[in-house]
Design a protein that fits this description.
41% helix; BirA Bifunctional Protein, domain 2; three-stranded mixed beta sheet; elongated; single chain; alpha+beta; Helix Hairpins
Length: 425
């Protein structure tokens, strides 16, 4: 969430940020916050004046007693003041809740170098890596190939759980685990601490990591419980620091996790797309870093380079795009995506996202650190190390052979225990 002081002192900056994000409909929310804030200040002032009067009354009553004066009026006033203060404080709290509710609708302030754009077509290609392989035979899409190799059953997944759920077995199930293990070890070598987190969180925890409207569109709720299934390990890893005061000398704090992830919404093409690319349930290795504000954008570049190194090691061609202002998520100030080449589709498709949330999540979750005896909010960054389902799509499509088999990237041989998936494997 944004700092209320930023909205108070520089509302034009917040409005210009909304303009750049193409969220003009939210500009009125800035004025609404300022209106509520003015009311809040007025009530607060009245409350403070009454509290001051309460303190003075105590002195006046004692003085009147000593002088033998009638103190009935003073006692009556002293009796009424606490109730008036209570009513004012309740009003103040209700207005504060309204302010916080509206603030949560406002997105993070964009980094000044984020390219302007309206949607995905305006995202900017930064670089490419890898040579795109030429095939001399007709490629199968990953779902057809997986079914032909008898390593997935998409129809039965749909039969027992609905669209967006699948059965994986044999070589593909092993490949899923291999990518998880390799991804974790890749991060451990880069001094990340592995965490096994909860995969269900209370609303007050998960609300600090995602936009409020995502509760209806993305996150699954556990019936009759104040619990939600995580859409990514980021939700749990960031919430791990909720209401804590951290030590700056420990920055950057680098943590990672591998978890199942659950998403109600699975993309513009919906649940009718057969296969692994868009699913309600998938596995993902995630990295989160807590950084000092002055180092966070440098840290973003370092975090992005880690995942690029990972996909280079898999020998999968990819490109890196910077997300434009209109496509950027609410919590991000800046974001990069890695898109791998999908030869059957003859296009690049997103497989990872890396973003700097600056202090947006830290404020929402009350995560602080001390600097020069002053409490400040750290910056929080996250990046997909590997979503195994999308990486497997890239492997199935880029490494398929004419005989219908699929080669396994060399770095995964020791994790899989085999070098290819064929009808025999």
């Amino acid at each position: 969430m944004l700092d209320i002081n930023l909205i108070r002192n520089n509302p034009d900056l917040v409005k210009k940020n909304l303009e750049k994000r193409n969220q003009l409909e939210k500009i009125k929310n800035v004025d609404l916050i300022l209106k509520y804030d003015k009311e809040w200040k007025q009530i607060k002032q009245k409350s403070e004046e009454l509290k001051h009067r309460r303190n003075l009354l105590s002195e006046e009553i004692n003085k009147a007693k000593k002088e033998g004066k009638n103190i009935s009026k003073l006692l009556k006033e002293a009796k009424e003041i606490p109730e008036e203060i209570k009513k004012l404080d309740e009003k103040q709290n209700k207005i504060r809740e309204k302010i916080d509710e509206v603030i949560l609708t406002l997105p993070n302030i964009l980094h000044e170098k984020v390219p302007y754009g309206k949607d995905t077509k305006d995202n900017v290609e930064i670089r490419k890596w890898g040579k795109i392989k030429e095939f001399n035979f007709e490629l199968l899409n990953h779902a057809e190939l997986a079914e032909k190799l008898n390593i997935a059953d998409f129809d039965q997944g749909r039969e027992v759980a609905g669209q967006g759920f699948n059965y994986l077995f044999g070589g593909l199930a092993v490949l899923d685990l291999a990518l998880q293990r390799y991804g974790v070890e890749f991060l451990l070598k880069r001094k990340f601490k592995l965490v096994v987190p909860p995969i269900m969180l209370r609303k007050e925890s998960i609300a600090g990591t995602i936009a409020m409207h995502d509760f209806e569109n993305i996150v699954y709720k556990i019936e009759n419980e104040n619990l939600y299934l995580i859409g990514t390990a980021e939700h749990s890893l960031v919430s791990m620091f909720m209401n804590k005061i951290l030590k700056k000398e420990n920055f950057p704090i680098k943590v990672c996790s591998v978890t199942p992830c659950f998403r109600r919404e699975i993309g513009a093409h919906g649940v009718d797309t057969k296969g692994l690319f868009r699913m309600h349930q998938f596995n993902k290795v995630e990295q989160v870093i807590v950084s000092s504000p002055e180092d966070s954008f440098k840290t973003l570049e370092e975090m992005q380079s880690i995942t690029e190194e990972f996909f280079k090691s898999l020998e999968i061609p990819f490109r890196v795009v910077e997300i434009c202002s209109g496509d950027l998520g609410m919590k991000f100030a800046k974001q990069y995506d890695i898109e791998t080449w999908m030869p059957r589709q003859k296009q690049y498709q997103e497989v990872t996202s890396a973003g700097n949330c600056t202090d947006y999540q830290a404020r929402a979750l009350n995560i602080k650190y001390y600097e020069s005896n002053e409490k400040k909010f750290p910056h929080i960054l996250n990046n997909t190390m590997v979503a195994t389902s999308r990486a497997m799509v890239a492997i199935l499509e880029n490494f398929q052979e004419k005989d219908g088999s699929v080669k396994i990237p060399k770095v995964l041989h020791s994790y899989c225990g085999f070098k290819e998936i064929s009808m025999k494997k």
